[in-house]
Amino acid sequence: MTATEAASHPRGNGNAAAAITASAAGTTQHPPPGTGSIQGALTRWFAVQALIGLSLVCVAIYAVTSWSFQVKQSSEFERQAELIRHLIQESADDPLRNELRHKLDDFFSTHPDISLVLRRNDEIVYASTPHRASARWLWMPSDGKRQPEGAAMHLQLGIDVQEDARLLTRLAWTLVGAVALGAAMISLTGALLVRRGLRPLKRLTAQTAATGPEHVGQRIDPAPYAAEITPWVVQFNAVLDRAEQAYRQLESFNADVAHELRTPLANLIGMVEVELARPRSADELRNVLFSALEEARRVSVIVIDMLFLSQADRGATARRSAPVALADQVRSVLDFHEAKLEEAGLEVTVRGDARLGIDTGLVRRALSNLLSNASRYAAPGSTIAVTIDTRPDEVWVSVSNRGDPVPAEMLPHLFERFFRAERSRTDSSEHHGLGLAIVAAIARMHGGQTLATSETGVTEVGFSMRREVSG
Questions:
Q1: Which of 26, 98, 373, 378 has a beta carbon 3.0–4.6 Å from 4's, enabling a disulfide?
Q2: Are 462 and 397 in contact (CB under 8 A)?
Q3: Residue 145: beta bridge partners?
Q4: Distance of alpha carbon 402 from alpha carbon 347, whole angstroms
């Protein structure tokens, strides 16, 4: 069995043009202007995060320490106020307060960090002289203590907080230095870690640069790389596989096109040269022109088919019509092949039916190619079966015939361009091996796929079309 071409059809062969180019030279890709490095970006983020994090921690430490000093000062106020109240209570029987002044003088002589102003109404009963003139005092009033004669004593205590303020200032500068030094150290170590972490990417870059058309078959081993990089390596290897396959297909395509066009062009040139070698009659020239026209048409068919395949390869999709009965489309194509089928003594049966929105012209072209292919290789007097199989998401259309089996190793290549299972057949020059490639392209344009089997003397070739998703 070989791939076949159908009669020229207007659908899919319009004003399309395909340009096929191949570049074997590798190109060096440079990052666009303004794109920074990952190492620089990560280093900056390390520095910013370290600065913010350490600053928050140090602010919290300073706030807690300042609050602790305030608690200590309040406690000290309360303790000293309680002691002075006790002294006042002990001197309650002394109306002149001489004993109280004497006790307070003795007390403040040993406590230079405390000052006191003692009032009764608007009269200052006692006022200590601060021993530290340059100290920073924090004053706090205390509640009054009522005396037996009825007047209340009001205390106003002062505590020297200069040392606490000095300690807080020292702590603040220490924390600022810790933030700066810590951020610098974290940034430096982060930069070193990032550089070390990105080392595999640099190695991967070098290995990637070593691949290309000049190193066919060379792949990158994903084993040495981290789990995050392995998928990229696997995908890159897959891209290389597809690229090499595309190169091979392109080279094969160029060779096949040159081979297919060489014969008709050589025939055309040869006929013209022979006829121009000596004078010819009008009838002889007319016959030569007819022969030249046939060769030109053959070249035109090849070019038109290649343009259609180029459109399909670029992702063209079928323009679906309203749902139609596929069995009716098969019968319309059978009318076109009726004479050829009768000449070969072949019968055709149609099994099944389905209503589906399709590109009618393209589907008829695919059916014509399949029927033409089957009729050429079917055993004389046998029956060709066209089966329409309806499935939930797609519809399969297959054509089977009895005849010589196709070798199993050739089945995967039947839908390739210019493939012929038997190039030695007498009609191989009339069929350039694009028929089944066009069937595969039409199947793809309908969201489907192809199949080819050959078992127990029955060869079946078909394609599927997906149902349109509503909504």
A1: 373
A2: yes
A3: 153
A4: 12
- 285-292 average pLDDT score: 83
Determine the distance from the C-alpha atom of residue 468 to the mean position of all C-alpha atoms in its chain, rounded to a whole number.
Answer: 27
Using the 8-state DSSP alphabet, how is residue 173 labeled?
Answer: H
- Give the DSSP letter of residue 456: T
Alpha-carbon span 339 to 353, nearest angstrom: 24
Tokens of 31: 């990052």
pLDDT over threshold 80, residue 289: yes
Provide Rg for the chain, Cα atoms.
49
Comparing CA positions, the residue from 12, 96, 32 lying closest to residue 312 is 12
Q: What are phi and psi of 434, to 5 degrees?
A: -115, 0
Q: Check residue 34 and give left, alpha or beta (phi > 0: left; psi -120 to 50: alpha).
A: left
What does DSSP assign to residue 416? Answer: S
Tokens read off for 114: 């405390």
Q: Which residues contact 21 (CB under 8 A, 6 or more apart)?
A: none
Answer for the pair 407, 420: CB distance below 8 angstroms, yes or no: no
- Choose among 229, 456, 445: nearest CA to 317: 445
Q: What does the pLDDT look like over 417-443, one tens digit per residue? A: 777 655 434 444 456 678 899 999 999
**One-letter amino acid of 85:** R
Helix, strand or coil for residue 408? helix
Distance, CA of 140 to CA of 155 (rounded, Å):
9
Q: What length is written for the chain?
A: 471
**Residue 237: exposed, middle, or buried by beta-carbon count in 10 A (0-12, 13-18, 19+)?**
middle
Q: What is the pTM of this model?
A: 0.52
Strand partners, 140: 157
Q: What are phi and psi of 250, to 5 degrees?
A: -65, -45
